[in-house]
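F.,

This is the one I mentioned.
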């Protein structure tokens, strides 16, 4: 497997696998390696004095079972055909960014976040999903729990369950207003596993 990440646990010492899936790393014989690759379960392997280690990564089926919010409801990631990317609220919560918009930078492919000012009250960045247009505004349509909003600067990261970005045909349900893409924000709601009345 090409490009798998190999890290020595508790250090910044790391490497990636070559074209043939091989790697070489210098570390102590008692160290533990952390092997990760997108779509596979991350594994920890103890070296235990071995000079050569064969590692087989297992598919992360949980990624395929992930539920993604789309314009007309929810869908499993494995059955999704449109251009939809999503990020969980926990990732946004852990971000040191000053607001929700800025915390999305680098987490969703194709999303451009431009912080124009650091002045309190005016620090909402511009967001572009489908590139800059020639005419008018290139801002995406922002929908929070089914209601259109102008921006998400006042959102508390603790309240966010997930954020999905819709492009191309998957955004068509919102009409011409979605020409620049759609950002769907789902907030946390109460959940009951089993509710019994007596």
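My design for it:
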């Amino acid at each position: 497997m090409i490009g798998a990440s190999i890290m020595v646990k508790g250090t910044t010492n790391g490497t990636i696998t070559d074209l043939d899936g091989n790697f070489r790393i210098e570390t102590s014989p008692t160290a533990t390696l952390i092997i990760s690759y997108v779509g596979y379960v991350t594994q920890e392997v103890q070296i235990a004095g071995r000079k050569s280690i064969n590692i087989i990564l297992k598919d992360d089926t949980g990624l395929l079972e992930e539920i993604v919010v789309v314009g007309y409801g929810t869908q499993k990631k494995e059955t999704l055909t449109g251009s939809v990317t999503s990020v969980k609220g926990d990732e946004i919560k852990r971000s040191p960014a000053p607001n929700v918009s800025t915390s999305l930078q680098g987490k969703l492919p194709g999303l451009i976040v431009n912080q124009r000012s650091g002045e309190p009250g005016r620090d909402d960045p511009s967001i572009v999903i489908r590139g800059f247009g020639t005419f008018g505004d290139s801002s995406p349509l922002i929908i929070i729990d089914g209601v259109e909003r102008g921006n998400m600067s006042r959102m508390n990261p603790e309240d966010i369950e997930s954020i999905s970005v819709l492009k191309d045909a998957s955004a068509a349900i919102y009409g011409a207003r979605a020409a620049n893409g759609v950002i769907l924000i789902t907030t946390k709601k109460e959940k009951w596993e089993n509710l019994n009345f007596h």
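Helices lie at 61-65, 89-94, 100-103.

Talk soon.
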